[in-house]
Amino acid sequence: MNKPMNEFEHNIVWAQVATVSDFPEDGGMCVQVENQQIAIFNFARRGEWYATDNLCPHKQQMALSRGMIGSHGADCEPKVACPFHKKTFSLKNGQCLSGDDLQIQTYPVKVEGASVFVGLVKP
Ligand code: FES
């Protein structure tokens, strides 16, 4: 289970989005939260969960939930590769790992029992 690790934790509103069994193992699923499409990833072989925007900023495709996830570099940075042109993004901080000046938003995820929650920062 991932815990949010930032000083804004008290400003986070948790939205229950699905149950663990709704997600493919080592894959992602798109959920709609407050008119936002969010890609949530069950990185089962690492025992970790991640959430990002579903929108790939490269060509504005709603696609990241269908991307391949894996590990990048010596630090084993968790990453997702967009299925369209294979731009890759860190699942931890949203940075583009394929050398482009692109960024995606990431969100905290928590699992309680069978329920999966994504955290959104209060406006
Ligand atoms: S639209 Fe995602 S890499 Fe091009």
From TrEMBL:
Species of the source: Ephemeroptericola cinctiostellae
GO molecular function: 2 iron, 2 sulfur cluster binding; dioxygenase activity; metal ion binding; nitrite reductase [NAD(P)H] activity
Rieske domain: residues covered: 15-118
One Gene Ontology term from the biological process aspect of the record: nitrate assimilation
Gene of this entry: ndoA
Superkingdom of source: Bacteria
Pfam families: Rieske_2
PANTHER family membership: NITRITE REDUCTASE (NADH) LARGE SUBUNIT
Protein name as annotated: Naphthalene 1,2-dioxygenase system ferredoxin subunit
Ubl conjugation as UniProt keyword: no
UniProt KW keywords: 2Fe-2S, Dioxygenase, Heme, Iron, Iron-sulfur, Metal-binding, Nitrate assimilation, Oxidoreductase
InterPro entries in alphabetical order: NasD-like, Rieske-like_NirD, Rieske_2Fe-2S, Rieske_2Fe-2S_sf
Iron-sulfur listed as a keyword: yes
